[in-house]
């Protein structure tokens, strides 16, 4: 899905004269992908000169571009700051990453606990990008008073 198609899909949703939050079509995933330590070596913000010269992980490039071609939305979400946007966009483009967006300023430090009114699935990168598989895991959720 091209950037223009994603923009149309995610904006201008109106019901009963009011804008509503969009819901993606069945089977389309909205991937938020970290950069450092996930698609390339772990480059800290304190060493921005390495951001221009690091190499992408080949499996990450191939897998993400495949997901893009399958129609999924790819957005990079990085702890790099706005000061690093230009070098980051140039690096992504030079290495051929296909993506729809780039969000800068993700909180640093890890141990993320994302709270949202939309379904959130998290996948921890452990050294190799592949297609995702299903696996049962234990997660923390809000207490809704219904215990199984």
From TrEMBL:
Cross-referenced Gene3D superfamilies: HAD superfamily/HAD-like (3.40.50.1000)
Keyword Isomerase: yes
Positions of transmembrane segments: none
Origin: domain of life: Bacteria
UniProt protein name: Phosphoheptose isomerase
Keyword list, A-Z: Isomerase
Molecular functions per Gene Ontology: isomerase activity
InterPro entries (alphabetical): HAD-like_sf (IPR036412), HAD_sf (IPR023214)
Leader sequence segment: none
């Amino acid at each position: 899905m091209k950037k223009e198609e994603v923009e149309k899909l995610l904006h201008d949703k109106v019901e009963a004269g009011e804008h509503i939050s969009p819901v993606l079509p069945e089977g389309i995933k909205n991937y938020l992908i970290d950069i450092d330590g996930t698609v390339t070596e772990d480059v800290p913000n304190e060493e921005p000169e390495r951001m221009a010269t690091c190499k992408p992980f080949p499996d990450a490039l191939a897998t993400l571009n495949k997901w893009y071609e399958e129609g999924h939305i790819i957005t990079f979400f990085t702890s790099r700051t706005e000061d690093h946007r230009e070098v980051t966009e140039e690096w992504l483009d030079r290495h051929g990453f296909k993506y729809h967006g780039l969000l800068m300023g993700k909180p640093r430090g890890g141990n993320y606990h994302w709270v949202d009114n939309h379904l959130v699935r998290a996948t921890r990168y452990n050294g190799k990008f592949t297609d995702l598989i299903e696996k049962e895991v234990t997660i923390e959720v809000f207490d809704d008073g219904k215990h199984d």
